[in-house]
Amino acid sequence: RMETDCSPMELPKNTGFGEDSDYRDFEGTDVKDMRLEADAVVNDVLFAVSNMFVSKTLPCAEDVAYINVETRERNRYCLELTEAGLRVVAYDFDQTDDRLQTPYHETVYSLLDSLSPAYREVFGNALLQRLEALKKD
After folding, report:
1. I need a surface site. Which of 6, 43, 89, 98 has the fewest CB within 10 A?
2. φ, ψ dihedrals at 49, nearest 5°
């Protein structure tokens, strides 16, 4: 499990979201914790990139987290993860560039597919190996 310098905010025990509340589908809050999401993103695709980790220097919160990724082509990116999705915010680790207007991607797979042909190849090969293994079962 990845470690980050961020600690989850303490939520009050009595949030007012009872069983009959309109918010019962949410676990005490209506916002996903992006720090946890970022860890999951990294764990999902780390095998297909050279390096990937949640930023320890950029601020992360319940609504935003930053992920550094180095593709197999040795290109470095800083990604912003929000409810809107993932997007490139800089072309180096632990940076953000407000002038950069890059599109949001719904998934890390879509984003990496657009950035890295080597990622696409490694991910595709892993998928084929899993399908072959399923056929044998």
Report:
1. 98
2. -130, 170
Q: What is the extent of the structural domain holding 73?
A: 34-136
Contacts of 37 (CB under 8 A, 6+ apart): 65, 81
Q: What is the CATH number of the domain that holds 44?
A: 3.30.2280.10
Number of domains in the chain: 1
State the amino acid at position 114 in one-letter form: S
Alpha-carbon span 30 to 47, nearest angstrom: 31
CA distance 59 to 21: 32
96 within 8 A of 78, measured Cβ to Cβ: yes
Does the reported pTM lie above 0.85?
A: no
pLDDT tens for 10-26 read: 333 343 434 443 433 44
